[in-house]
Amino acid sequence: MSSMRLPVALSSLLFASLAISLGGCDSHAANPSPDASKAAPAQAASASPQAQSRSQVFAAVKQMTAVGEKIFFDPSLSGSGKLACASCHNPYHAFGPSNGLSVQLGGSDMHRPGFRAVPSLRYLQAVPAFTEHFHDSDDEGDESVDAGPTGGLTWDGRVDHGADQARIPLLSSFEMGSTPAKIAAAVKAAPYADDFRRAFGANVFDSDDKTFAAVLRALEAFEQVPQKFYPYTSKFDAYLAGKTKLTDAELHGLELFNDEKKGNCAACHISQRAKDGTPPQFSDFGLIAVGVPRNRALPVNKDPRYHDLGACGPERTDLKGRDEFCGLFRTPSLRNVALRKTFFHNGIYHSLEDVVRFYVERDTNPEKFYPVSKGVVQKFDDLPKRYWSNVNTEPPFDRKRGEQPALDEAEIRDVVAFLGTLTDGYQVPAQTPAKSAAN
Ligand code: HEC
Ligand code: HEC
C-alpha cells in the first residue's frame, strides 16, 4: 500500500501551499485584519517560509481540506445562490448525481441544461495527468507499449488538477454561473471566513483573484480525503481481502467481465490489483471512442450540426483539428457505478442492463441503438463519418451484424450483479469466527 502512484494533484497542492505562504511576504496589508492575532500554525509559518517544515505544510493542507469541504457544500458561491458542488456531486451517490436526469440544470435561473452527464468524484486520485502517449509498466509488463491518450480530468481529460477543474463549474454559465468577485464576497461573508483566513493567511482576502485561487485549492484539497473519495470499502474489496464471498451470479459476472472472449470489460476497466498492490480502479483511464449513440433528448443536440466530440472539441480546445482524438472520452472507473441512474458521457442510458446490452449488441443488432432511416441503420450517429475509424472494434465490439452477441441476457444480468459489488460502504457480514472465541 505504501507505494501507491503519487497523486499528481496532491504534490502540486503542497507546492501551492508553499507558494501562497511565500506570496504572503511581499504583500503590505492595507487593512490589518483584527483576526490576524488568531494566527494558527499554518499562518504563523507564512511569516518565515524558509522554515516551513513538512509537518507545517501538512497542517496547512489539513486546514485547507476542512474549509474546502465547507465550500463544496456552500450554494452561496453560485450565481443563483442555489447550486453547490454537492448539488450535482451528491456524497450519498459517490459524489455523482442523485437524480436520473441525463444532464443537470444550472445557471442563474437554474434552468440552463448542461451537455454532459455528471461523473462520480470518487477514485479520481488515481487518474494520471493527460498524455497523448501513455506508457505503464503495469501494461503487460512492458513499458514500451503505447496505450495511447490517457488521463486528465473531465470526460475529455482537458484539465489535470482539481483546482483547475473547479474553476469550470464555478464560472460556467450553465452550472454555478459565478464570478471571482462574487465568490470572494460569498466566502468573506461565510460562517467559515475565519477558518479560510487561517488556512490561507491573513492576506487571502486582499484581492478577489487571490481569494478565488485559494477557493480552488481548498476544493482540490477536499477532493483528496481518502475516507470520502477513495475508501475502497466495496464488497469486491472485501472479497479481494478474503473477508467475504461473492454470490454465484456475482462470481459468474466477474468471470464474464474478465473473459477476453466474452465481456472483455477488464481490457479497459481493469479489475486486478496493480503490481504495487494498489486495489483495482476499474479503469485504465484511456480515452476511447465506443460510439455512444446521440442523445436526442439533450437540448444541445437540437442543433444537428452540434457534436460533442470529446477530446477534439468543441469543449476541449488544445486538440482541435486532431482527427484521431475525435469521439474519444475517458474510460470512467466502474466503482460505485450501480449508484448511478445515468450512464455514458451524454447520459443516454438509464440502466446498467442497457449499457451492457449496448456493448454486446452494438455490432450484432445496431438497429436496437441507432436510428433507422429508410431501412438503413445510422450507426455511430453522434460521430461524423470521417471519424469512424476511431471507434473501438476490440471484443465485444468485434462482431458483425446478425452474429451471436458476446453475452446473452442471463449473462448480462450476471455482469450487472457483479457491477453491484463495486459499491462502497459494504458491511462484512458478522460471522461466527472459525478459529477461536478467545479474542
Ligand atoms: C450543474 C452540475 C454541476 C455542478 C454544480 C458541479 N459539477 Fe462537477 N461536473 C459536472 C459535469 C457535467 C462534469 C463533467 C464535465 C465534462 O466532462 O466536461 C463534472 C466534472 C467534475 C470533475 C471531474 C470528474 C472526472 O471524472 O474527471 C470534478 C473534479 C468536479 N466536477 C468537481 C466539481 C466541483 C469542485 C464543483 C463545485 C465547485 C462542481 N464540480 C460543481 C457537473 C457539475
Ligand atoms: C475498449 C475499452 C472499453 C471496454 C472493452 C469496455 N468499456 Fe466500458 N467504458 C469505456 C469508455 C471509454 C466509457 C465512456 C464512454 C462514453 O461515455 O463515451 C465506458 C463507460 C462504461 C460505463 C458507463 C459508466 C458511467 O459512469 O457512465 C459502464 C457501466 C461500462 N463502461 C461498463 C462496461 C462493461 C460492463 C464492459 C464489458 C461488457 C465494458 N464497459 C467494456 C471503455 C470500455
Automatic annotation (TrEMBL):
Primary residence: other
Listed GO CC annotations: cell envelope
Keyword Ion transport annotated: no
GO molecular function: cytochrome-c peroxidase activity; electron transfer activity; heme binding; metal ion binding
Location of the Cytochrome c domain: 63-220, 248-423
Localization: Cell envelope
Name this polypeptide is given: Cytochrome c peroxidase
Organism field: Caballeronia arationis
